[in-house]
Amino acid sequence: MTAAIVEDEAQMEKPAKPAAERLGRLAAAAASYLQALPLTLILGFFFVLPILTIIIVSFWDYDFAGIYPDFMTMNYTDTLGSWVTWKTYLNTLRYAAIVWVLTLVIGFCVAYFLAFHVRTAAMQMVLFLVCTVPFLTSNIIRMISWIPVLGRNGLVNSTLVQAGIIPAPIEWLLYSDFAVVLAMVHLYTLFMVTPIFNTLMRIDRSLIEAARDAGASGWQTLWNVIIPLAKPGMAIGTIFVVTLVMADFSTVQVMSGGQSASVALMMKNQMSLLQYPAAAANAVVLLILVLLMVAGILRVVDIRKEL
Amino acid sequence: MHHEKRSLGFYILAAFFALFVLFLYGPLSAILILSFQGPDGGLTFPLNGVSLHWFGNLFERQAVGDFGASFTRSLSLGLMVMVVTVVVSLLAGLAFRRRFKGASALFYLSVASLVVPSIIVSLGIGVVFQQLGLRPAWYSSAFGAHLTWTLPFGVLIMFAVFNRFSPAYEEAARDLGASSWQTFRHVLLPMIAPSLIGVGLFGFSLSYDEFARTLMTAGTYNTLPLEIYGMTTNVTTPVLYALGTVTTLFSFTIILLALAVIMILRRRSARMG
């Protein structure tokens, strides 16, 4: 009956509709623009303008005293012509690949456990929060917290030595590539767990029952049903982890004890020497690399549909 | 299905999950314990007596620089970022509910702001301020730098919230004669309030702990994470752990507070609805 009344009203209003509707649509459009304005202004000034400035400055000249407007490609040829740069890029990509594989496997197992093995929604929420809380605390503190665990006289070494498993402390636990990767996995796995958990929770459970009814084993269901459906979550997690590792300098600096390099760390060192144009050229190269990687991943997933 | 026997897979994954939680919290608890190290104790186990010595040390200026002032700056900056993130994300979320020209571009700009390496944003803002002849400071340039990280999170969360939000409630309110402000204030806002608290928590925490984006933009006065980063290279006493314990407990308190508020809001709306 309500529907009939609404329909009636709609019919009664009909003659007045065009003008009012056009006005309404105009007001709605204006409201949308007004609501989107603050975000646009903030991102415009603090994100788009700085990126454009970096691109411009990467062609400028510099010396020990300052930077000067110019148009030269020396910053790029210097950077790309250097063997050290290529080695640093390769090293950063290596970190990204290793950390990506580890976080993907760990993140999927954790998310799978939460989504399919924890039976009550309340317990799911609590365990999910247990995983999320450390993400909201300081990265640097979480990095430092490995020192008493991995150090020469740290927990791991002293336990192993006392148990007689090794004769002397292992030196490469801290201040090594191992420590860098371990700390990165520690810091970034959450970014994988959350999106994968999100997609797993949205899988229609009847699909899994159907697979089982059709005679699929547990592994077959996992491989042919669950993992393909979880791909969007994995893709979003991959975007987070890969971009975070590519941008990392503090973990590499602290955990390798200054023995390893990453692109961002190289940039940071140039910045502390006030070589802004050189750092800017590096920034542009890194930016293009990261955006290409993200564009590649976005071909697998439509973020707007996954939210 | 609910009383099915647990499979072997369950026990393996449960053990894996327990290890993961240990991996997340183990090291943190190590520095928590070591911050109570006796006055003669060092950076590693064993504990050389138990004392509050290093917490006391925290408030002496010569030991850690100016801890109180950098904490105050980080706290104020976090609150500023939180308020702006909540308001701007909510407005943008409302805007994205309707189609408008440039909506897609704005959405992908937000995503870009999330994926562009933070040190690049930091460098860019630093150079912009230098070229404009402005003095970088934690409340101007660092504030903007933090927003480029917190706003995308806020916008994505609001986008997800409104994706699942049925317009039927607002239509019902309008049919009952509510003005658009009344609909917003009494229908929409109470329903999305828990999500807004979540966005606020994200905004505050991400800013309070942010480091890479502050590096080139903080100006003369350090925020707390910059102060701690400086300490990692030149402080070799457990005072570093004491500082870590204090700021981590502060973060935990904020998180619990936000969760409590969300629970209260949920319970209240469950009672009323």
TrEMBL record, chain B:
Q: How does it sit in the membrane?
A: Multi-pass membrane protein
Where does the sequence pass through the membrane? 12-36, 75-94, 106-129, 149-166, 187-208, 239-265
Q: Does the keyword Cell membrane apply?
A: yes
Where is it located?
Cell membrane
Q: Identify the residues that the record assigns to the ABC transmembrane type-1 domain, covering every copy.
A: 71-258
Q: Which residues form a coiled coil?
A: none
Tagged with keyword Cell membrane = yes
The Gene Ontology biological process annotation of the record reads: transmembrane transport
Please provide, in alphabetical order, the Gene Ontology terms of the cellular component aspect for this entry.
plasma membrane
Q: Which InterPro entries match?
A: Bact_Polyamine_Transport, MetI-like, MetI-like_sf
Q: Which family does it belong to?
A: Belongs to the binding-protein-dependent transport system permease family. CysTW subfamily.
**PANTHER family attached here?**
PUTRESCINE TRANSPORT SYSTEM PERMEASE PROTEIN POTI (PTHR43848)
Q: What name does this protein carry? A: ABC transporter permease
Tell me the organism's taxonomic lineage: Bacteria, Pseudomonadati, Pseudomonadota, Alphaproteobacteria, Hyphomicrobiales
